[in-house]
Amino acid sequence: MLTRSRVLFSFGVFGAGTTAAYLFLPDKTRHAPTVDDASLSPSHFTRAILTSSEPSGPNTKLLVLRVPGFTKSPESTTSASRFNPIWSVYIKDDDIQVERPYTPLEGIDEEGRMVFWVKKYPKGEVGRWLHSKKVGDQVEFRGPLSTWAPREDDAWDEIVMISGGTGITPFYQLCHSIFSREDNASRTKIPRFTLLHSSPTPSELPPPRILGRLREYAAAYPDRMALHLFVDSLEPPPALATDLPPLQLGRIGKPAIQRTLGIKTPSWWRSFSFFENSANTVKPSRRILFLVCGPEPMIRAIAGPYGRNFSQGPVAGILGELGYTSKEVRKM
Ligand SMILES: Cc1cc2nc3c(=O)[nH]c(=O)nc-3n(C[C@H](O)[C@H](O)[C@H](O)COP(=O)(O)OP(=O)(O)OC[C@H]3O[C@@H](n4cnc5c(N)ncnc54)[C@H](O)[C@@H]3O)c2cc1C
């Protein structure tokens, strides 16, 4: 029988990079037990029920898991200059005992509900398994685990989030946790948030549940949040095209990043000179943190490849060319 219990948000013990390291390091939590109550912890699996499963594009679904008997503890207050960490949970494919991290879009609500936007890859294990689950089926997960957390001494003027595909999910969670509550959104010390998101085609863009709300936040707080959407191609349009947001055609390349940030580009003759890779941009004086999340080729093009065992590695790619360093860039 399920007993009522409180969620334990033990982010403190999970430092940056834990998720990536977890995938490679042997860890007894891989064999974490499943508990018979509704408590949440990274070190045990909790049972949830799939209460909704809706297609949201060619290979994606919006899934809702609910933890029966869940009781939410009061949210811990964050200081005026900080905001909540981004977090994820590991979902276990029971058939082959494999787990992967997924991001609850809006955290967990009072009823124990978590909403996920999950992509299915043709040969992917857990994504395909999750898509095959029926409403009423049981799904085990463990967490929360910190995906990224601001440091106590962080003082960024702007956080630029760059995502591809379902890589938008951690950024949606972050924006939602700030802009869905006016008391949070109107705090004076939070940085400005800029989200650059790309999907291959309009039909693969995040569903209205995600994009609609992000657009609302950007409209309500234009000096605090900006949203820029990119597609590789305008075809095919979404099956349920209603209110398509403004789209930029092409990938999130250097010109797009420079334009978005108001970074000045060189006069034409300088771009042919030996200044090519050093002084051909004027870095804005404001302190900018870049968070990049998406398919590996996109991370590589924008921020350079991961290091060994998915460590951060040096900053290369477009952000490296623009002069940003590992203190200013986080590959997620
Ligand atoms: C912190 C964190 C949060 C995440 N949150 C979400 C989320 O909310 N929603 C979501 O859908 N995913 C999310 N992911 C990705 C997810 O954990 C899995 O990596 C993804 O679902 C693929 O797992 P799989 O078992 O289906 O495929 P796998 O069995 O791991 O992979 C099979 C095949 O798919 C390819 N593949 C796997 N991942 C990708 C990719 N990202 N791009 C292109 N090809 C790929 C592989 O190259 C391989 O050929 C998150 C990842 C992290 C680290």
Automatic annotation (TrEMBL):
<dbReference type="InterPro" id="IPR001834">
    <property type="entry name" value="CBR-like"/>
</dbReference>
<keyword id="KW-0560">Oxidoreductase</keyword>
<feature type="domain" description="FAD-binding FR-type">
    <location>
        <begin position="43"/>
        <end position="151"/>
    </location>
</feature>
<comment type="similarity">
    <text>Belongs to the flavoprotein pyridine nucleotide cytochrome reductase family.</text>
</comment>
<keyword id="KW-0274">FAD</keyword>
<dbReference type="InterPro" id="IPR008333">
    <property type="entry name" value="Cbr1-like_FAD-bd_dom"/>
</dbReference>
<dbReference type="GO" id="GO:0005739">
    <property type="term" value="C:mitochondrion"/>
</dbReference>
<protein>
    <submittedName>
        <fullName>NADH-cytochrome B5 reductase</fullName>
    </submittedName>
</protein>
<feature type="binding site">
    <location>
        <position position="100"/>
    </location>
    <ligand>
        <name>FAD</name>
    </ligand>
</feature>
<dbReference type="InterPro" id="IPR017938">
    <property type="entry name" value="Riboflavin_synthase-like_b-brl"/>
</dbReference>
<feature type="binding site">
    <location>
        <position position="126"/>
    </location>
    <ligand>
        <name>FAD</name>
    </ligand>
</feature>
<dbReference type="Pfam" id="PF00970">
    <property type="entry name" value="FAD_binding_6"/>
</dbReference>
<dbReference type="GO" id="GO:0016491">
    <property type="term" value="F:oxidoreductase activity"/>
</dbReference>
<dbReference type="InterPro" id="IPR039261">
    <property type="entry name" value="FNR_nucleotide-bd"/>
</dbReference>
<feature type="binding site">
    <location>
        <position position="119"/>
    </location>
    <ligand>
        <name>FAD</name>
    </ligand>
</feature>
<feature type="binding site">
    <location>
        <position position="169"/>
    </location>
    <ligand>
        <name>FAD</name>
    </ligand>
</feature>
<dbReference type="InterPro" id="IPR017927">
    <property type="entry name" value="FAD-bd_FR_type"/>
</dbReference>
<feature type="binding site">
    <location>
        <position position="102"/>
    </location>
    <ligand>
        <name>FAD</name>
    </ligand>
</feature>
<keyword id="KW-0285">Flavoprotein</keyword>
<feature type="binding site">
    <location>
        <position position="101"/>
    </location>
    <ligand>
        <name>FAD</name>
    </ligand>
</feature>
